[in-house]
Design goal:
heterodimer, A: alpha+beta, 15% helix, B: nine-stranded mixed beta sheet, eight-stranded mixed beta sheet, 17 strands, 35% helix, globular
Chain lengths: 92, 434
């Protein structure tokens, strides 16, 4: 049986319904390096830095756990996604 | 919805909220449950065992149609070293009879949906796909909630906050502070399909029996955490959890910890050749007694994970604590409803009931667990490695006379670690985990 180990493959197992607007963001004025210093902890690896050092937030992959919110409360703006959107666990 | 007014509004359709709703609806109250997932359970994740002692009390016939995976008759605890394990287990046939020790593996997406159907059948209204962001205030008091939708104002006399571990609403009321990274665990898990026959053979089970394997020690790449495997009907749940603080310090991503756990030499044979079905993540409030939320106020009560009711010791209980708090909040609401008094004083009956309840007593007994684990990082790296070396060398067959070997290993132990420090850690551990 093929084993999925990359994040992309693993997230591909789940059902996601992306809303048009993000429910996650880095607060204006926050140091983008928080992505490297803290947000590596995100279980879905939602946060990345672009080549130019700009945070990329792939909110559509969010597992809605809240880890980023607790790890970086000063830098992360966090809300629940719109009702009925986001991840839907089949097993949970 | 602006014209409607409910006797109670429950925010969040998990075990705590649905129990509260069920109890209140049964007593004839007009109850609405507001759930953000497309159905109750759609956003809910746990490790794997639903403890049904409270469920049995309020729904004695639950075994007839509840979506149960397996009856947990076998529990195993192991201390992982980087390349091995030292463990022990117990399995009792009596756990397979009657209510199976009230320990069942379930899939929350199905189970919570089933519970919401029961609450609905009892008379509660369930609306799904709806997020609640704020409260409605009137004369300085909570008069309802604001759902994120057009015309989303909902009025109610009592608000039960069952919105889970992140509980943004209780935070808005200043009932508790932001979760502390040192006492908040991020758990990640995979559900992996295996045939029923393979599950029975691998875990030593018969029929519908289930197993719960818990892994301590070096289970999270040296971070403060643990791992687990739970058997479902034709899937297994494999996961790890570690404190956010510890993962930050170790620069670890939870999924990398999970991959390492799945590839551990003693775990890999149990999970291999399966088909991955789902990858999920969820926070666990591990702060215990010392970090509990304020529990009630004017027109409002907080239940379950939202209030911090998880027993993260060796017992790993959560769903039953959630249900008990939901039940007690429901009973309190019924009394308040009869008196038409929804003041903080009236609802403080919930606090009083909780004081004598098993969730509160258990959390109180183990109130130092989180702190002790946080201050015992050696239990997660240094000691498992040391114990593994001592035990494996002791049992290495190499012709060295046993007297020599035992003396040599004792010297090794005493030079590797201050014996008083080791003893203190072991005594502390015993106190906080069982």
């Amino acid at each position: 049986m093929k084993q999925f180990t990359t994040m992309e493959d693993k997230l591909g197992l789940n059902k996601f319904t992306a809303f048009e607007k993000t429910h996650l963001s880095i607060k204006p004025g926050a140091d983008p390096m928080v992505v490297e210093h803290k947000l590596f902890i995100c279980p879905a690896k939602v946060y990345e830095l672009s080549d130019k050092g700009v945070p990329i937030v792939s909110f559509e992959n969010c597992l809605e756990c809240g880890t980023c919110r607790v790890a970086a409360p000063e830098e992360v703006e966090w809300a629940y996604p719109q009702g009925g959107y986001g991840v839907t666990f089949k097993f949970g | 919805m602006a014209d409607e007014k409910f006797d109670a509004i429950v925010v969040g359709g998990g075990p705590a909220g649905l129990t509260a709703a069920y109890v209140m609806a049964k007593a004839g109250m007009q109850v609405i449950v507001v759930e953000r997932g497309e159905h109750c359970g759609a956003k809910n994740v746990f490790g794997g065992i639903f403890f049904t002692n409270v469920l049995k009390e309020i729904m004695p016939d639950f075994m007839n149609d509840a979506p149960i995976e397996r009856n947990v008759t076998k529990r195993r605890f192991a201390l992982l070293t980087p390349d091995g394990e030292m463990g022990g287990d117990f399995k009792f046939d009596k756990f397979n009879k009657d209510f199976s020790n009230n320990s069942f593996t379930v899939m929350r997406s199905k189970f919570d949906k089933w519970m919401s159907d029961k609450a609905e059948a009892a008379g509660a209204m369930i609306i799904t796909g709806t997020v609640v962001d704020d409260f409605l205030m009137k004369d300085g008091k909570i008069a309802g909630v604001k759902a994120r939708m057009e015309d989303g104002d909902l009025f109610g006399d009592i608000i039960v906050l069952a919105d889970g571990v992140n509980s943004l609403l209780a935070k808005k009321l200043n009932f508790h502070k932001e979760l502390d990274p040192a006492s908040t665990i991020i758990g990640v898990k995979e559900v992996i399909a295996l045939s029923e026959e393979r599950i029975r053979d691998r875990f030593g089970l018969t029929g519908n029996e289930g197993a719960a394997y818990e892994y301590f020690g070096y289970a999270a790449k040296g971070a403060i955490g643990s791992g687990f495997i739970y058997t479902n009907k034709d899937t297994i749940s494999v996961g790890v959890g570690a404190t956010i603080k510890s993962l930050l310090e170790h620069k670890l991503n939870p999924n990398d910890v999970l991959e390492a756990f799945k590839n551990h030499p003693t775990v890999a044979p149990l999970v291999r050749d399966g088909e991955q079905k789902e990858y999920s993540a969820h926070l666990i409030p591990d702060g215990g007694y010392n970090k509990l939320s304020k529990l009630s106020g004017d027109n409002v009560m907080v239940v379950g994970d939202a209030a911090g009711f998880v027993n993260a010791t060796l017992f790993h209980e959560g769903t039953n604590l959630a249900m008990e708090t939901g039940k007690l909040a429901g009973e309190t609401a019924i009394e308040a409803f009869k008196k038409k008094d929804f003041s903080a004083l009236s609802l403080s009956l919930y606090d009083t009931k909780l004081k004598n309840s098993f969730p509160m007593k258990d959390l109180k007994q183990f109130r130092n667990t989180g702190k002790t684990l946080e201050h015992s990082p050696k239990m997660f790296e240094k000691y498992p490695i040391l114990f593994g070396e001592l035990v494996s060398e002791l049992f290495t067959v190499d012709g060295e006379p046993k007297w020599n070997k035992e003396k040599r290993l004792l010297t090794k132990l005493l030079t590797s670690e201050n014996p008083f420090s080791l003893l203190k850690t072991l005594i502390d551990m015993r106190r906080v985990i069982i």
